[in-house]
Structure formats: structure tokens, C-alpha cells
Amino acid sequence: MEIIQKIIQLNEVNFSYQKNRPLLSGLSLQLDPGHIYGLLGRNGEGKSTLLKLIAGLVFPQKGSIDVLGFEARKRRLQMLQDIYFFPEELPVFNLTVRELEKIYAPFYPQFSIEQFNHYLKEFDIPDKNWNLSRLSFGQKKKVMIAFGLATNTKIMLMDEPTNGLDIPSKGQFRRIIASTLEANRCLLISTHQVRDLDSLIDSIIIMDEHEIVFSEPIDVITDKLSFKVYDTNEKDDSVIYSEDNLRGYYQVRENRNHEDSKLDIELLFNAILANKKRIKNIF
Predict the structure, then answer these.
(1) CATH 3.40.50.300: which residues of the chain?
(2) Which of the four pLDDT bands, split at 50, 70 and 90, describes residue 78?
(3) Helix (H, G, I), strand (E, B), or coil: what is residue 20?
(4) Could you tell me if 218 and 203 are in contact, meaning their C-beta atoms sit under 8 angstroms apart?
(5) Side-chain half-sphere CA neighbours of 138 within 13 A
(6) pLDDT tens digit sequence for 151-195
(7) What are the two backbone dihedrals, phi and then psi, of residue 156, each rounded to the nearest 5 degrees?
């Protein structure tokens, strides 16, 4: 199987919904296959818009977006058949699960009915005759996630997929997503629920002030930074960020001694927003 390189490439992309109010400016990003990327940022940073730009649903005013070797704005059939976009706000379907499969599955050449059935079972959706309009928000999400994974597209774009899922369903989501990653597949997940994904994603992208200020694999992050709890708030020049907690002081430090530590994504996010310049110098 030939592995595609640079599955998504954005170069100096500008975008705005309103004239003279830029949402994204000079945004550049490269995403490679075989990774699950977590896209983080405060509300209004443009995360959802970034996903829509990649999917060809909105078009940049400046710059280029290359997806699977195609210009995204041209929405070539070959590109669209290999992208599944999972929006935060789900469309309203007055269809049964079986009718959803019959109508929309033919658009995706690699769709697997066997996988769809398997994922539905994993998500505790036992009956394809259930009508989507009568399901709870969380159940609808599970059906659409199962459908998306069964498309076997090379790119999956997911906007807040765990919102509305209960605790057992979030565990199911992590397990199923992890099992679907292949060398030619790229998943980009935008989320505020970082605790839901901290054992799943392998690369982190952070947006601030409508720009990408950080994009690194987790193994590189934990090689260069340490995340630990200390009894006192003593600070030396290795400390980048510190915050008080019931257990003590959570700190992000330069990992000068290459110690092992578990990445704390929330702590990393806060450290980057508080000290972008120093983090940039380290990486």
C-alpha cells in the first residue's frame, strides 16, 4: 500500500466571514497520514472554520489548501469521496439508520456495511430500524460516528465528537477510534473536552489569536517538557508555568534531564497561552 505524504497542506491561508474582520490570517499547517491530531483553542478561534476549509465547505480569500493532491476549493469528486466531516451540530435526518446507510453509503467507494454493523453494535445501537429523529443527541452522534468510520475515508474531520456522549460512550469512542487508525488515514479532532482524548491523540495543534501557535507530536512534547506535581511552588529558571491545585503545584518545566512524565494537555494549553514566546524558543 502506497502511503500518501502531506495528506493536508495549508499555505498562508486568510479567511473571514465579514469584510475587515479576519478570522484566520497567514495560517500554514501540514498534516500527515497515520496520525490522530487534537485541535485545541478557545471559543471563536476558528477551529470549526479550519475544518470546513479543509473539507472544501468554505473557501479561503488568500492562500492555498491542498488535500489529497487536490485544491480543496475545487471540491473534486475524488477528494470528497475520501473525506468525512463530522460537524458539531448534526443535520436533522428523518430517516432510519438503515435508510441512512442506503442513501449515503454509495457516495463512499470504500464504505463497509460489515464495519458499520460492528461499530453500531459497539456503540449499543442494536436496531437499524430506529429513526434518527427519535434518538437522543448522544445516540445520533454514535450512529453518525459509526457511519463515518465505516466510510474508510483517508481523512476524518471531527468537531467536538464527544459532546453529548455519556461516560461509557466516551470510552467506547476512544477504543473504536484507536482501532481504526491506519498508515494512510488522518484524523483531525477539534475539541474542548481534552480529558476525553488525552489517551487517544498523538499530536497536538493549538490555536490562539486566530493563528496556529503550536503543532507538535506528543513524544516530542514530553521529551522537551516535563509535567509534574510539586509540594511547594519553588521556582527555578526551568519552570515555564505553574498553577495551584488541591494536590499541590502543577508545573510545566523544561525537561533538561530528559525525565519521563505524562503529558497534561490542559496544563500544556495554559502554559502555551501564558508563555508563547518561551515555548516557541524551546521547540
Answers:
(1) 8-209
(2) very high
(3) coil
(4) yes
(5) 13
(6) 999 999 999 999 989 999 999 999 999 888 888 899 999 988 888
(7) -120, 125
Determine which helix (DSSP H) or strand (DSSP E) holds 114, and give its type and residue range. Answer: helix 113-122
CA pair distance 112, 108, nearest whole angstrom: 9
Instruction: Mention the CATH class of domain 8-209.
Output: alpha beta
Task: Tell me how far apart the terminal alpha carbons of the chain are, to the nearest angstrom.
Answer: 33
Dihedral-angle region of residue 217 (phi above 0 means left; psi in -120 to 50 means alpha; beta otherwise): beta
Is residue 120 a contact partner of residue 128, using CB atoms and an 8 Å limit? yes
**Whole-number Cα distances in Å, 31 to 7, 11, 64:** 6, 12, 14
Residue 5 and residue 31 in contact, taking contact as beta carbons nearer than 8 Å: no
Report the C-alpha gap between 238 and 75 in whole angstroms.
48
Q: For 245-282, write each residue's pLDDT tens digit.
A: 878 889 999 999 888 999 999 999 999 999 999 999 99
Residue 163: name the closest of 140, 193, 139 by CA.
193
Q: How far is residue 73's CA from residue 63's CA, in Å, rounded to a whole number?
A: 11
Q: What is the model's pTM?
A: 0.91
Q: How far is it, in rounded angstroms, from Cα 211 to Cα 273? A: 12
For residue 154, give the nearest of 61, 83, 227, 77 by alpha carbon.
Answer: 83
- Note whether 53 and 72 are within 8 A (CB): yes
The one-letter code for the residue type at 25 is S
The sheet with strand 239-245 has its strands ordered as 225-230, 248-254, 239-245
Residue 250 DSSP SS3: strand
